[in-house]
Write a structure and sequence with these properties.
Blueprint: E1 6-9, E2 14-18, E3 30-34, E4 38-41, E5 49-53, E6 65-69, E7 73-78, E8 89-92, E9 99-102, E10 115-117, E11 127-132
Parallel strand pairs: 7-9
Antiparallel strand pairs: 1-7, 2-6, 3-4, 3-5, 5-6, 7-11, 8-9, 8-10, 10-11
Length: 134
């Protein structure tokens, strides 16, 4: 995996989810929530956010649980050239895992929001500070 989020302010809110034993999830990966109370790697701006993986989940290690951070401040990679302005809600880009974009389209819903941008950027591929709010 690549482009995992990097924690720069320790979270205080965590959730524990079920995950597939055969799935590998890197620490810092954005997770989507599915039913029942299951988390997996997010890859779409229409995924309901579960948090950011606080631990690595090794594929086929016998574990079916993962812990996700639901707050804290994180550095993400911007996935589009469109500007993200400080204070904008951000969502998963949907083109590549762990990239973010501004919450701007009509199909983005509140449950899909990852957090708030803490700085303004205007170029794809640069790092942006985001306060998680899940």
């Amino acid at each position: 995996m690549a482009k995992e989020a990097v924690c720069i302010e320790t979270p205080t809110l965590f959730s524990r989810y079920t995950c597939a034993d055969g799935t590998g999830i890197a620490k810092g990966s954005v997770l989507q929530l599915t039913t029942p109370n299951t988390a997996s790697q997010s890859d779409s701006d229409n995924d309901v956010m579960a948090g950011v993986a606080w631990m690595e989940k090794v594929a086929s290690d016998g574990s079916t649980q993962i812990t996700a951070a639901r707050d804290g401040t994180w550095m993400f990679e911007a996935g589009t050239a469109a500007a993200i302005t400080v204070g904008n809600d951000v969502v998963v880009n949907g083109i590549a895992n762990n990239e973010v974009k501004a919450y701007t389209t009509l199909d983005d819903e509140k449950g899909y929001v990852l957090g708030k941008a803490l700085e303004t950027i205007g170029t794809a591929g640069v790092q942006i500070m985001v306060r998680l709010d899940i």
